[in-house]
Structures are given as C-alpha cells and as structure tokens.
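chain below, 158 aa
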Amino acid sequence: MSETIEYGNLMHRALRRLIKEVLEDVRDNGLPGEHHFFITFDTQHPGVDIAEWLMERYPSEMTVVMQHWYDGLDITDDGFAITLNFGDAPEPLYIPFDSIQTFVDPSVEFGLRFESQSDGEELTEEAPQEIVDIAEVEPEPEDNGDADVVSLDSFRKR
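prediction:
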C-alpha cells in the first residue's frame, strides 16, 4: 500500500473518464445545441494513429475540431477513433485519452488542460492538471471576464 493518497493520479483518471463519457454521449446522441470541441493532443504519444501527412505537418501536437462534420466516432477504454474532414479529405484518426493535452467546449466555456508527463509516468503532485479558461486554449479568444482558471496548485501541500 502506498504511503500517500495519490490525488493527482486519481484526478487525472477521473478527468480522462469525463472526456470518455462526453464522447460516448455524443456518439450515441450527437452534439447537442451549439456544443463543439477543440481537442489538442500529442502526436508523438504512443498509440496515436494519424495520416503520415498530418504527422509531418503537426510533428508535436495537433488540435482538431469536432463540430459540423465527423464520422465513425468509436470509443474504447484507452481512446477514440474518429474521421474528420481536412480540406475535403476525410482522414481517420485514433487519439488515446492519455495523449490529450486540452479538451475545450467553448459553447459552455468549459476546458481541461493536462500537464505534460514523461513516457509511461503517472501524473504526480508536481504535474497537476487544471480546469482552464477557454481563452487560454482558443486561438482568438473572446473577451469574457466571467471565466476563471482553477489550478490544483492551490490545493497542493507545501
């Protein structure tokens, strides 16, 4: 048994499970209302499967938008497969949940950011994830003084 409760690892798994549940609901019921997602992931993460031309164009990270057109959304315990349109060229992608760096739904000002981890390393107290203001993720943020950044740093024992 561990000598401490690993809150960082527990939070990490819970937030990845949240993304999985959201995507399962979208798979089963479609995107409701104005909901849409910006998903940024590490293209070098083990298990990421994208076309070679996308890997060349995005050698370290890539942001995909799930909004008007997507197809073949399939969720596994470890990630999700989806086909997205890149300039009228449908491309299948497989994105492991552990490769996701940010998950943002700007329609409701919701966002998650996951801090970098070393290969195979569990999230530690030194690398917390946080709920982020969507303005930090969107390329052209709208001025909205109501959104707050909540960092897990404020809860860390010093």
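The CA atoms of residues 34 and 123 lie 33 Å apart. The two ends are 23 Å apart (CA to CA).
thats it, cya
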